[in-house]
Amino acid sequence: MSGLPVSLIQALREVVGEAGLIADVERMHSYLADWRNAYRGQAALVLRPASTEQVAAVVRLCAEAGVALVPQGGNTGLCGGSIPDDLGAQVVLSLTRLNRIREVDAANETITVEAGVILQRLQEAAAEAGRLFPLSLGAEGSCTVGGNLATNAGGTAVLRYGNMRELTLGLEVVLPDGRIWDGLRALRKDNTGYDLKQLFIGSEGTLGIITAAVLKLFPAVRSLTTAWVALPSPRAAVELIGQMRGLCGDRLTGFELMSRQSLEFVLHHVSGVSDPFADAHPWYVLIELSDTQPDAPLNDMLEQGLGEAFERGVALDAVVAASEVQVRALWALREGISEAQNHEGPSLKHDISVPISRIPDFIARTDQALQQAFPGVRIVAYGHVGDGNLHYNVSKPLGAEDAAFKAQSEAIMQVIFDVTVNFAGSISAEHGLGQAKRDAARHYKDPLELELMRSIKRAFDPAGLMNPGKLL
Amino acid sequence: MSGLPVSLIQALREVVGEAGLIADVERMHSYLADWRNAYRGQAALVLRPASTEQVAAVVRLCAEAGVALVPQGGNTGLCGGSIPDDLGAQVVLSLTRLNRIREVDAANETITVEAGVILQRLQEAAAEAGRLFPLSLGAEGSCTVGGNLATNAGGTAVLRYGNMRELTLGLEVVLPDGRIWDGLRALRKDNTGYDLKQLFIGSEGTLGIITAAVLKLFPAVRSLTTAWVALPSPRAAVELIGQMRGLCGDRLTGFELMSRQSLEFVLHHVSGVSDPFADAHPWYVLIELSDTQPDAPLNDMLEQGLGEAFERGVALDAVVAASEVQVRALWALREGISEAQNHEGPSLKHDISVPISRIPDFIARTDQALQQAFPGVRIVAYGHVGDGNLHYNVSKPLGAEDAAFKAQSEAIMQVIFDVTVNFAGSISAEHGLGQAKRDAARHYKDPLELELMRSIKRAFDPAGLMNPGKLL
After folding, report:
1. Of A403, A428, B182, B246, which is the most exposed, with the fewest CB atoms less than 10 Å away?
2. Is residue B215 domain-shared with residue B227, that is, in the same domain?
3. Would you tell me which residues 236-265 of chain B have a C-beta closer than 8 angstroms to some C-beta of chain A?
4. Which of A317, A338, A359 is the last residue of a domain?
5. Cβ contact (<8 Å) for B430 and A357?
6. Is A78 in contact with A431 (CB distance < 8 Å)?
7. How much is the CA Rg of chain B, to the nearest whole Å?
8. What is the DSSP code (8-state) at residue B173?
9. With an 8 Å Cβ cutoff, is A195 touching chain B?
């Protein structure tokens, strides 16, 4: 039984129809845990409205009844932001049936999509219009636009195109009282007051329910190349990205760092990959250049840049992809890390950012602090140099027990976050806070900033019914 | 006499020193009107603090005494946002002494500057570090970073680099109660809660006083070219920008439209300029391409694009700049419009935006409506096609009286704004609201959006002492 009044359930059923209401525990199951099964909760109901108006009616009914809502997209988040608590009184509001692409305006370089559209489908719709939607991340085959907006998603193309926030021109939002705010503007300049959409982007469903968005499109990419480069140190990576940015400008669309340890995990556990070099090197970067011009001389540019890097000792070895197959093979090394690490026992995943210039000192300081406190842990550091964003993950020492290592996870996280904050960084660069990092944020963030956030929360959602227990 | 308690004046003097307090009416004069002398007010005092701590102390003292503050930068705004009302009870807070460049971090591609730094000095500091700070607008020699942030300034490079909002990574803000929020983060990814800086950007000083910012830098431009193209219609301009974006991608850094009427005013009133073509054409665009590569083949690319445009009848004639002198000469035609129009009697200036795809219909509809209601008015339409942003200005009919024309200004504005809103546009694309458009915003904006804005204002500034009478 759901614990909700029968009259409320009946009213909700009238809004969303039989197909939109799930009260059966078996059928609710997949909505109550994230894809990794790291977070699991209980819910009174799962609702699947099929339109903005239905979302609005649901929110209004729940607001009147004082029932809390947990908005949910593709459920691919890493911080439990879309999973209800375990008391069973919250209602999960799945947006996946709001999956229409409402409009493509090629001349305005915009696309208007509903919250439940899968990211990959959005990318494909852009491509069909001869355009690029650049947001790209591991979960793109199942994550939704609404989730990307609610968490201000990042990924590998932020270096050139920005986070989801920078890709958004307008939003449609159902407010906590059930009114619909139509902020679906397709404008690149609009200075007529506070930019309200910015509050909802990255707010993880705590201020309202995003139902649709106007997003920016870009010219299609017609040339692309990648290189795999061995480096002596993270400092060399920072030098190299500065040099390549100066040389290539906006053609530099990817610059991914990974440690030897990261590569070794991939080489051990992912099938069909191989080390591009005969010798082992301490660090690597994957460089991607792209251009709107067909047959742009990107390889020449790469070779010029790498030539200079060799002379200055910044690069130790390099291979430039000679075909699309090789491009994919090099990216497979980078993209295999997360999966490979899972084969080495529990993965403690962190997602920090620091100023790009401080990456080398951050890595040196954190490595040292961890090895001192937890001898033998294996550090799987990789990430997006151009964003200052490192997935500074940790695996257990060889031969250690999983349980003993897991018991240290909080303490390890604290070491990493302490150094991060010391370097004026962020403890969550692109994954958000959700349930996972809410308490850490309380600890590490400026109390004044938390106070301002709470005052906004009170102004928008005084009853506290929007995704309670997340973010704040 | 200032009307303020002597004890308060004494306390303020102790904070800012003799050099930072102006009570003399003569010496206050230049702080009480904007550069065009379109808005003039009165003030109890002008304060010129020299540090963030002094700003904080001033704000705290004024908050305790219930005295309203009007923050002011270079005073180059067009909407009276930095001018006090005429009751003489408000205090003007000039930020121009906060003019330090605190840090340039070339490896992080960021610069940290105080609010009073002149935009041009910021551009120069970036250039000295081998980088580009791309914001560029007419007033750059006297406007300040604080004003650029408070109004989310735009200009001619938004097409490629975005508005001031997109160029900002972090802010330092003195809150209405005098506390300092240190949000000076230099991070490209940070998802640890609501993005508070977004509220202050574009809030025109109504939520707090921005005292410093971390801004993005970009690779220096090493090749640049421009073309001047004659077109049959605004529709051709929209077609041409789509084609050039697809061809050139991010190299397209300027695409400025102007009508024949605009050019004629420039040719009549600006010295040292000439029509690039022997024949008159109805519309023109100035195209700018730039690249980080020295000797990039930009002219080849322009000629390829224009060749296709001629074939399709989109372009009627074109000239490509052969030297830096010619580049400047072409830009002079565009940049002379505002000054030239002032010689033709009162200029009714508007700053609207619509989706790029709707520019042609917007211009046709507005031209028709204006000529029907106000026969003979001369429409000076120009602007940034890539931003959908038109300065759709109006001059009096030939031979008409200034006063009679001025008396129609509200009615003319209403015609233009009605069409703008009909085309899902904005009545203020880049100039903000200030005093000038506050009432129009009340009329044209969604009441729900105004309500949300007011709830934010109440949450941050419950006493309403931050730049009252502006924006909201």
Report:
1. A403
2. no
3. 238-239, 242, 245-250
4. A338
5. no
6. yes
7. 23
8. E
9. yes
